[in-house]
Amino acid sequence: MYVFNLNKLKRGDIILEKSDNETSELVRKFSHSTYSHAILYVGGGSCLEADDIVISFNLQRRLVENKEYVCVLRLKDEVAPEVLDNIILNARMNVGMLYSIDDAKGIISEKYRPGNLRRQTCTRFVAQAFEKSGIHLVENPNFCSPEELLTSDLLVKVDDVLREANEKDLELANSESVLTKQHEIIKTVLQKAREATNADIQEINELKDFVIKNQQYDEVLATILTESGYLDLWKEEENRMPQHYDLAKFVQYYGKSVLGAARDIMETSQPELMRYMFCHFQLLQDMKMFGHLKVVRLFTELYENLTDFTMRRMAVAERVIDFFFHGLTEEEE
Fold it and tell me: Going residue by residue through the chain (333 aa), what tens digit of pLDDT does each one get?
């Protein structure tokens, strides 16, 4: 078994996958592709993909049986960090959106191509994230195959992206995942919201805008959100990874790789923080007119918590980095 070597990956990398199962074989056959699935790497071991819905997952949990089953692609020309931030933000805005098998058929034939792109496919999800940032990876980002990504003139292949899995890797891969729980909760929230409203709500953040326009649904959607556990998912991260929120535990846990871990956290957390702060600012503006709506209040509180939570994680990582470059302060000594 193999796992991804995170030291070889960079934010914005595209991971192409295949397997020996029937679905993968059919996708490759009908799309004339070497691979059947596309994933966007967002840094720090985290990825985004369009599975049954668009989700985030920990790449360190992904075991690979054969080195030939994966390929990592990277932009040939380096882009500014803010461009990568924008690509990842574009992708994150799709979290929770349903996957569409019918839309995936549109890769094969134009007759299957709908005019309303309210669903995702794995390759569309990746290509659109780049397209919205002005990077045209493929001719048609709405309907493209894994092979078109593989042969894009703007991408190059990254070598040696896998390493042999050790006992710790296997233990992590087989342990319970908070992100899997998050995935199921988001699916449940959106399914119940669609059933309650008979509206095509595809993303969690659409709930707020929907309620502002359809205030009669405020109570029922607020109840769905509250009872789902979605609003408290952020708390589980601290329970699962307490070392990210305590300096002494951070140093003890990461040992010799402490500096690299701190840098990874800063790299992945910065765009998250900007996104949370932006969403919180927008919600504060909405509160001025729609503060009477429970859904608006719930989302405002959520993004305030996410902002504070991310800042605490970054503060620990920043202290580690400061120590390596400036030494301990008198207070820390």
Answer: 999 998 899 999 999 999 989 989 998 998 999 999 999 999 878 899 998 888 888 888 889 999 999 999 999 999 998 999 899 989 988 888 888 887 888 888 777 676 667 788 899 999 999 999 999 999 999 999 999 999 999 999 999 999 999 888 888 888 777 778 888 898 899 999 999 999 989 888 889 999 999 999 999 999 999 999 999 988 888 887 899 999 999 999 888 889 888 988 888 888 889 889 999 999 999 999 999 999 999 999 999 999 999 999 999 999 999 887 766 444 444
| pTM of the predicted structure, to 2 decimals | 0.79
Short-list 186, 190, 219, 214, CA closest to 202: 190
- What are the sequence ranges of the domains in the chain? 2-164, 176-326
Domain at 2-164: CATH code? 3.90.1720.10
